[in-house]
Amino acid sequence: MLESRLEQADLLKKVVEAISGLVNDCNFDCNDSGIALQAMDNSHVALVSMMLKAEAFSPYRCDRNIALGINLSSLTKVLRAAQSSDILTLKAEDAPDVVNLVFESSEKDRISEYDLKLMDIDQEHLGIPETEYAASISMPSNEFQRICKDLMNISESVSIECTKEGVKFAAAGDIGTGSVTLKQHSNVDKPEQSVEIDLSEPVALSFSLKYLVNFTKATSLASKVKLSLSNEVPLLVEYELSGGNSSYLRFYLAPKIGD
Amino acid sequence: SSNQRSISSFFTPK
Fold it and tell me: Which of B3, B5, B11 has its CB closest to that of A127?
């Protein structure tokens, strides 16, 4: 059986909010190392991959592999009943028909309990190869969100060009063109404001802004975002979850080709 | 305009 307790319901609320624009139904795969999720969006352009390590919970118990097939809009409805600071416990039997969610307020002696019906989801798992990316950029997550939203006013696609000079996000549309260039800089007082660029060779790729803007719904989960690029492979957009236990929310986006 | 690639053309089923 599964029994996992999260100190802050907010984490799950935000993860579900961040992915529900891309994915309708998906399996939450639970085993002794934690809860994982992998799903393609409906148009098979993007892939979401989440890992919530057992260490993110206290306690965490899952002795068998259990797949919780969940409709995300139904889960969103249930999670609306959880206050952000509630303690959230997920429970399921070994071959479950439902997942049980309990929200506890430590201040108010209130316990809310919901059973969410599960569904059978026959989901294809994709193997994601280990990639040595040609460029990786770590930057403030809110800045990435801002850039994507601003450039979406100009065009439906953005080119991301990374050289030793910096990283340039550029868009060209009917009304004109726009670009934002970021150079590497460190902010000693506010490290979350730093921009770090790790480059082994120059990269230039184009992506659909609609998907990138969708990914940035995860902005409130982490102060930093990491973009990893290599020519001719999908972009990786990564948010760290719940600090320091290597839990993550990753989005992969296939590039656009031609012009 | 440019062509959108599919993610499954990069990542193969396990």
Answer: B11
